[in-house]
Amino acid sequence: MWTLRLLLTTLLIWSAQSGRMKKVAARVKQQGKQIEELSSELQTLQEEQSNNLVRVLLGPDSEGVNSSCFKTCVGDTGKGATQWEGQGKGKIYTRVNISSCEFTSSPIVTTAVAGDGHHDKTIGVGAPFELTNTAFIVNLLGETVTGFEDHADPIDSDKANRFKWHIFWIAVGNTC
Which of 32, 46, 134, 172 is the most buried (most CB within 10 A)? Predict the structure, then answer.
């Protein structure tokens, strides 16, 4: 008799747990569908964002362009490691290698100079020269004149190295 009661009690518990397990499995399945739907929606939004970025960058020329071919690449020439060149005082330059980005044509480039001082008054950093898919040049053409200091120390490669000037850059371009 005890065995029969134990068996019936076990079956009732198992039946109740089985029902709860089925409910949990149904909820997991439903959440799995929701996750798939959200993943699909996220992918669509990422594609739209990429397409919109290309439209902003290329304007009217963006029609028919495969936005998945565009890539953003960023870098730094290295604080204290940038190789500045130039003759005399007043103009220096550095070559920036972007070949690791693997652009197929000249990208759109934005630059900024940073360092341990005196870089905030340089002129020319925002205008990359000789831009190709693998490199560009940044010229520093001097400093802006301020009323609170003299210019007895014009820019040259020694000053750039002494203050560890370097170039931050962002490039967006085609890789297909």
Answer: 172
Contacts of 93 (CB under 8 A, 6+ apart): 84, 85, 86, 129, 137, 138, 139, 140
Q: The pTM is what? A: 0.65
Alpha carbon 11 to its chain centroid, in Å, reads 60
Task: Determine the average pLDDT of the residues in 19-42.
Answer: 79
The mean pLDDT of the chain is: 80
Residues 144, 121 contacting (CB under 8 angstroms)? yes
- Select the more confidently predicted residue: 54 or 112: 112
140 burial (CB, 10 Å; 0-12 / 13-18 / 19+) is: buried
